[in-house]
Amino acid sequence: MKAISIKQPWASLIINGYKEYEFRTWKTKYRGKILIHASQTIDKDIISKFKHLNIKYPTGCIIGEVNIIDCLKVDSKLDNKLKKENNLIYEENYIDYYAFKLNNIIKYNKPIKAKGQLGIWNYNK
User: Fold this and answer.
1) What CATH code would you report for 2-122?
2) By CB atoms within 10 Å of each CB, which of 8, 79, 109, 123 scores lowest?
3) Can you tell me the mean pLDDT for 69-78?
4) Helix, strand or coil for residue 115?
């Protein structure tokens, strides 16, 4: 199954339904189910902004799955729209990045320990 590694708190924000786009400097043609792997890296400067959500930020494990349904090149219009909708999550400038549109979130009750990789990778149990 396909997987993508994402830093915390972003991985948990996706799996808990707070973040509907994942931003990358590269585009993908992949559409479909993908595992969300919480990487070993935690963005400590950002994580404190989400303390009020009372969610956990496990690392080094697969925490759920989503579907990638689109990959959009971010222009100023989309960037501004995302900031207006949820400026706490989308406060950075993502112009010229690619936004992977996500839906059908499934949060796993028990994370699966796994070593991540760059890009979209294959997870074999």
Assistant:
1) 2.30.130.30
2) 109
3) 95
4) coil
